[in-house]
Design brief:
single chain, 347 residues, alpha/beta, TIM Barrel, eight-stranded parallel beta barrel, 9 strands, 43% helix, globular, iron, metal-binding, 2 iron, 2 sulfur cluster binding, rSAM, metal ion binding
């Protein structure tokens, strides 16, 4: 597709997006750990570079107090949890218990991105939806993601739909996709009747085959996003970029994105990079949530507007007691996160 056609599609996509979404918000995945026990991990993934270094996988799992502290802070600053995410290696029981406790402290249902799991083992009353890690639709997908058969993911998402759950997929751009692959993605979205697509720009990881490969360009990224928006006007589109690609944000919002994701919150909150991110968004759309307000982060004041809507969350009494019992540890973790930000900003 020539540049003029892409830009014309972007112009149309921006109008459609603003018609159906009156603000842009931040989201962030809540990771449970850094180990994946897939026999054949994805070729681009950071976890694939760590697997042989981790002698005790249990030690690669985050503490519950850390997970819950982050969930509380994300709600405080108006960042929705994109999903609760983990590499393969957590049982359904573990996933369910953590999801219940996260939903309880956030007072809202959660999305899961924890692989193909048995939904019969999950309390679906606290689950809004599930995400399938499709990652890419390129011809050699099975070589790139050998441990994630596409048909299994599709079957899982269709079963989730039957249970009235929302569904989404992740797509990483920079894995060798071509323009003609866009039609494959559009067909997949239609086949699965998806509610959400999460795009990421590949952040090449040292030790992977993509370490020295170029990632997606801004124009290519815009083409993928606008193509999805034009075909599916009401679908939720999240776009993730790394700190070195902040200038992509406003073009991606113009292309149809209504959620910005991926950023390492606590390492750049309140810094010049965070102000740059906010400026990129506010130039083209209304922003909910903050990346810069220190008083909000500290809990000294509340956001006037937030993407969160409190819900009546009912969970297992043992999990509720566990949260209450961890309150002291959670508060310490919250203070630790906040103090690390303040220390960095006040240097």
């Amino acid at each position: 597709m020539i540049v003029d056609e892409i830009l014309e599609n972007v112009r149309k996509a921006y109008k459609i997006t603003r018609r159906h979404f009156n603000y842009v918000s931040f989201e962030r995945a809540l990771f449970l750990g850094w180990y994946c026990n897939l026999k054949h991990p994805c070729k681009f993934c950071y976890m694939s570079t760590q697997k042989n270094k981790i002698k005790n996988p249990e030690k690669a799992k985050r503490s519950l107090s850390s997970i819950l502290a982050e969930a509380i802070l994300m709600k405080r600053i108006g960042w929705k949890l994109e999903f609760i995410s983990s590499g393969y290696g957590f049982s359904e029981k573990e996933i369910n218990n953590i999801a219940e406790m996260v939903a309880y402290v956030q007072k809202c249902k959660q999305f899961l991105n924890t692989g193909v799991i048995n939904l019969d083992e999950i309390n679906l009353d606290i689950i809004e939806g599930v995400t399938g890690a499709v990652e890419t639709v390129v011809k050699n997908r099975d070589e790139i993601c050998p441990g994630k058969p596409l048909e299994r993911i599709k079957e899982f998402l269709l079963k989730a739909k039957e249970r009235d759950l929302k569904t989404g997929i992740t797509i990483i751009l920079g894995l060798g996709e071509k323009e003609e692959d866009i039609s494959k993605l559009l067909d997949l979205i239609e086949e699965l009747d998806l509610d959400k697509v999460i795009f990421y720009s590949l952040n090449p990881q040292k030790g992977t085959i993509y370490e020295n490969k170029p990632t997606v360009t801004t124009l290519e990224y815009m083409n993928w996003v606008s193509s999805v928006r034009l075909a599916f006007p009401k679908i939720k589109i999240a776009t993730g970029v790394w700190v070195d690609k902040i200038s992509m944000i406003s073009p991606l919002i113009c292309s149809g994105s209504n959620v910005i994701t991926k950023f390492p919150v606590f390492s750049i909150y309140g810094t010049k990079y965070a102000y740059w991110v906010e400026k990129e968004i506010k130039t083209v759309a209304k922003l909910l949530g903050t990346f810069t307000d220190l008083e909000v982060l500290m809990g000294a004041k509340e956001l006037k507007e937030t993407p969160y809507i409190d819900e009546d969350i009912k969970i297992n009494e043992k999990n509720k007691e566990k949260v209450e019992g961890l309150k002291g540890e959670i508060d310490k973790k919250i203070n630790s996160y906040v103090n690390s930000v303040l220390k960095r900003v006040n240097k």
